[in-house]
Prior knowledge:
Mean pLDDT of chain A: 80
Mean pLDDT of chain B: 84
CATH architecture of the largest domain in chain A: Orthogonal Bundle
Low-confidence stretches of chain B: 259-268
Number of strands of chain B: 12
CATH class of the largest domain in chain A: Mainly Alpha
Radius of gyration of chain A: 24 Å
CATH architecture of the largest domain in chain B: 3-Layer(aba) Sandwich
Strand content of chain A: under 5%
Order of helices and strands of chain A: HHHEEHHHHHHHHHH
Shape of chain B: globular
Radius of gyration of chain B: 21 Å
CATH topology of the largest domain in chain A: MetI-like fold
Number of domains of chain B: 2
Number of strands of chain A: 2
Oligomer: heterotetramer
Number of domains of chain A: 2
Largest sheet of chain A: 2 strands, antiparallel
Number of helices of chain B: 12
CATH superfamily of the largest domain in chain B: P-loop containing nucleotide triphosphate hydrolases
Helix content of chain B: 25-40%
CATH topology of the largest domain in chain B: Rossmann fold
Structural class of chain B: alpha/beta
Shape of chain A: elongated
Distance between the termini of chain A: 18 Å
Strand content of chain B: 15-25%
CATH superfamily of the largest domain in chain A: MetI-like
Amino acid sequence: MPTSERDREVLGAQAGLASAVAVETGSELGEIEQVRARGYWEQVWRRFRRDKVAIGGGIFIVLLFLIAFAGAPLAKDWLGHGPNDVYPGTALDPQTQLPVGPWAHFRSGPGGLPCVSGIPCKSQLFILGADSQLGRDEFLRLLYGAQTSLEVAIGATVLSMFLGVLLGAIAGYFGGVIDALISRLTEIVMAFPILLFIVALASTVGPRLNDFTLGIFGKGVLTLVFVIGLFAWYYPARIIRAQILSLREKEFVEAARMVGASDWRIIRSHLLPHLVAPIIVYSSLIIAQNVLLEAGLSFLGIGIPLPTASWGNLLSSAPDYYLTQPWLMLWPGFAVLLATLAFNLLGDGLRDAFDPRGAH
Amino acid sequence: MALLDVKDLKTYFRTDDGIVKAVDGVSFSVEKGQTLGIVGESGSGKSVTCLTIMGLNPKKNTISSGEARFKDEDLLHMSPRRLRQIRGNDIAMIFQDPMTSLNPVHKIGDQLAEAVLLHQDVTKKQAKTQALELLKAVGIPRAERRLGDYPHQFSGGMRQRVMIAMALVNDPDVLIADEPTTALDVTTQAQILTLMNNLQKDFDSAIIIITHDLGVVAETADDVVVMYAAEVVEQGSVDSIFRRPHMPYTWGLLGSLPRLDTDLERLVQIKGQPPSLLNPPQGCRFHPRCPYVMDICKKEDPPLKPVTDDPAHLAACHLDEETKDREAQKLIEGTLAAAS
Amino acid sequence: MIRYLIRRLLWAVVLFVAITIITYIIFFMIPTDPARKACGQLVTPACVKSARHYLGLDRPVYIQYYKFLERLVVHQSLGRSFANRQNINSIIGRAAPITASLVFGGAVTWLLLAIPIGILSALRPRTLLDRSAMVFVLVGISAHPVWIGLIFSWFFGYKLGITPIAGYCEAFSPPQGAACGGVVQWFYHMILPWITFAILFAALYVRMIRANVMETLNEDYVRTARAKGAPESRVMFKHVLRNAMLPVVTMLGMDIALGLGGAVFTESVYSLHGLGQTLVQSLSGDDLPTTQGIVVFGTLAIIVFNLIVDLLYAFIDPRIRLT
Amino acid sequence: MHKRLWLSVVAVAIGAALLVAAGFASPANSSISGAKSSFAGAKTGGTLRLNMSSSDVDYIDPALAYYQLSWDILYIACRPLLNYPDKPSPAGSRLFPDGAAAFPKVSNGGKLYTFKIRSGMKFSNGVPITAKSYKAAFDRDANPKMESPAVPFFSDIVGATDAQGNPKTPVSGVKAKGLTLSVRLTKAGPDILSRMAMLFFCPVPAPGQKGAPSVTSQGVNTFPGSGPYYVAARTPGGPILIKRNKFYKGPRPHNASAISVVSVNTNVDTSFTQVQRGEINYDMGGLPPTAHAGLAKKYGINKQRYFVHPVIATRYLGLNNQRLFRNTKLRKAVNYALDRKGMINLRGAYAGHPTDQLLPSNLRGYKNAGIFPFRPNFTQAKKLAGSGSRSAVMYTTTSPIGVNQGTLVQADLKQIGIDVSVSKFGTGTMYKKCGTKSEAFDICNVGWIADYPDPFDFMNVLLSGESIHDSNNNNYSYFNNAKYNRQMDAAARLFGPKRFSTYGSLDTTIMKNAAPIAAWDNDNDREFISGKTGCYTNQPVYGLADLALLCLK
Lengths: 360, 340, 323, 553
């Protein structure tokens, strides 16, 4: 039968963490017969361009980056206060002593203290109100939280992808004892109660790493990157290994081997190009998972340390206002939902674009 | 009235990229006890033709037209219920890949018995007995024991025998075999073909055998339909077509028959890939690959018309008779030389 | 089959040893001075000394590990909590049923949701039902379980008051003086946690089941069944579903293992004092033996569960059973 | 304050003066009213249903329990030799002889205390309570197998510990004969009476008697009660069932016939909703911080259902004088920079009142000196701190409030160039860590509730450098100044009004000149009971509702 009559509905299926692993033995992203240099990418782009939903996801992600890394500082300048500035005396309702609600104007002296005569006093605007009794700007914290979430999610994804691709490629390419060792290692990691372990590690070993920031990241970002990355590599590793296993038997690899190409060269210039598709697709799906994971860990109080804003931190202080200001639960939850959704949609779209047959 | 009469059969698939005309106006008929071979490259529409006859194409996005009359009932326009009664009972089918055509989680015996139970009012036990008999008939050793086995415990050839048994268990009038030997090794191929020939004699069924291998056709078929890019390009009796093929594509198929002599110059080779069925070439669909291509071929699709010396032998080609004679002769000589 | 069994069993043992070694190193080698922590409020030098001896910290690492393993395997004991001196076995004994209620109940919930939705949307692709299912899938895999939990508990529990906001009820033999007990109350208290816990997995499973069913529908043997003249219902139930569900069984094993960790979040939202909450509490209390005990227990549970799934899989898939 | 604050009872009082005379000047005066409470329309009988949100008792075993909530329960299940009456402040914090027939006879230069035990008392299982029962408590606490935290509180009793300081049992210095109990001390211990009132010394049936609690470091979950109630059942992490002790014939009230702590560690919002709906009578664990303003508005304060009572307690930041904060100017800078009102606001309305001194404002002897501002004065603080950036480690608790307090301190100190990183621990863990000398912290977020109303319990216990050990310290700022150590020792030996005024001046002097800590709050206890509940009384020593008085309406 011609391939075109295969039901295209199969596409877009199975993006879940475990589901992908289960089908990993098959040709996960379809064997791309030959990387027909430009034509292939053109086709991918052509197919991707038609997927309006995925494009939407992609645009949202670009916007998210802009908001997080450019919009947040701009908003900070415009509003005249920072995400960690506290207004413990002024951003609280004088009657109830609870944080002010959305679109609150109030006057405040330096340090967020009540105005006293003789000291300059400024008017402040809190667009989404205050986050807690500390009286921090929920809106700015939401924007800055995007920075943290993206840094953790992408950092952990890069680390786990790097480890996964490296180990998966080595295992798949060299086979034999090396493959057996790496595969067993993968199975051991998979048998761990991984989330329990991440929780335990983030809390015991984590605090020691919190001060390690490389000068550009917030405190605790790299801790989460390591803790998550070190446990999440097994998933790309299995996919890449399966890909390499099937590619290894292909004629062009045989041919390269026959003309005496070194292993490294074969991996780099013959195999890696075929892995670009799965790497890109799974990266975006894993980023989505990691956004959720960061929020979860910070919610449990073992993620990003104080006072840095992260969506999980915002979510974790919200239940204190369960009875009086339930909307505080909504903002960070929506932010997580939209970001994750965007990465998932992009990932699905890319998968479809790379692999129109959706063969699993 | 022929047992199965297919007239102007068309099957189109709607896809995201446009309409794929997988079968575009195919007509043929089969008589009782006769064997019809349908040959062509993969993607030429032979399998889809048969699936359309059986009503096995996915309902969604498929447009079929034309007629497929079985005992004067049109298979294409009958109720699903009636079609199910005919399927597996009057018309049975054997598929290309015996490895995947059996359900891996059910026992062989159950799968065979299912075929019986679907059409005959018998007990499970009786169905099993019938299944056993058929298994013996298709030459499966220790058949009693193997009823309880699962497909993965069978070799490819044995599975194809099971498939044949399953097809024949209800004594069908028409047996459609879709490349029954492609997935098998050469020795097994021969065994399966012999088995089918013998069974045909015993059961007196009509057989439609789909293959890309003219050798298989030569061994088994009475009539041949050659398909290219969803169309019939040549059809007629085996004798007639093998004696004097009228179409460069057929020559190509004949030319790619296995030969023992390697030093003989290959007269015809089919270069290139079959065309996309989304946008088939203008004119003769074979012209981009045809070594004898003429200007007219690019503009006009040649009609399928009887060749001069045999009215039952139809071909679609613009070439003049002399060229056809000359080239066909060379080819036949080569083939004969190879065979001798 | 026997060889398969033995292989799986041996592998389970290897896994267990490997994981306990790693756990042991992380929780007993890395932290500073567990003996001091073991002494609680009364940190006298004598106590530290006896705790060091009790914990075996005065012996070489491999002996310590051996002792730990011996205690675990021979005495089936996970040790004693630093925080409240309870036997960790009994701490886990109380927490595990709660987590098990959540995880298994959640699994049932997500299967009950995912199987019908997945199958129907596979059979009717691109219909309204299918599209709604796909929206559910996307939201389900993108919304944070913690958030879903908070919103549910606020809306259904606090605003509407039709479910409890949080809390747990023992189904069988509730302790004397407990607020509630019995299967009905247990069920009532678990409804929201189950749904919260199940949404993510339900979404993944809808997706997977839909794809599996579609893929199976394209299998040659399904065509064979149709060619035999089998009616659609028979084709679906006898030939499609069984094969389409095979991967679901494997996945279920892995996901229940994953879920054991994911339960941390649901438990924390609904104050269910299962393994996850106990773990988080033990972490904030520097209660290493409890932390470690829970991780080891979780690992064991996962290994055992995967073993059961492997056997179950072998049972339903003859290709594995008979090789 | 409860649920967050570990009840830290005074450790061994070294060189303490005659506290009997000082703290309990006229204890014999406190007349105990009759068995029934003084509430109009109080109803007896019925079962009270309580919650303990976000918390559980540590143990219910009197030899092990060392937590405010546990003691609030043990208070109604125990009849110690001396006890605090079921009355609001101030009467509620004055000792009266409960298990003992009268205050003890002190002889041998303050080293021998002889108690006469009341006759006719029985445990809830019918076993008579005699001197043996009280000795059994000492012996059990001293049993090394119990690993009891009570040991430091009686290690000055003869034979309580061996030469190495390890506990040993039986305690030879405690002798029981019929209804006479004698306690022999190694040196004069004037505060021994307040220690005898601690619930570690709750009588239990002696070994061999019916219901004698087993000796196990895991503790027992039930034991025969000697007070108006007894603990009938407890599941760790689960409910606690308390029942009337029908053998109790003493003067203490007992309104409900049973008290059931139906769930512990419950969600604070759930629990609050249940109290609002009347499904639960009272939540011992406290309230959501956001609820107070609304409750006060709706029910008024101390009128119907919402109660606010000052507790003799101070919250402060222990500034570790061994590390960054050995610099006095820097400590003062912190005191100028700390937003005291902001810190209190974090705990919701009516949480307490700001302070800048160690002694609680409701403690006798307190002098208001107005040393530091209640809202930050960053100008002054910066002047003191000087330029340059510093970093500090702060320990706080994992509770949302503890976390917010850490964040506010972080923000305040950032203004004076101190970069604070916050580490979070469970409450007990944090106190344990801060009490360990080698622990690398600079600021500890602690609170101190009076064990008994005397300045000694604050000044000497929290600031005397002489009591700093390797671990288990209460001097969370590791302040050790020879001059002030001497002055505190001297003050401890004083009597009467002089004692209090000396302590008051010492408090202001130390805070003004050395500022070893940054105090910020004197706590209020804030409670809410359901509409079906009445007879609320705040027991000032335990800082919670008196469960014996609480009744169903």
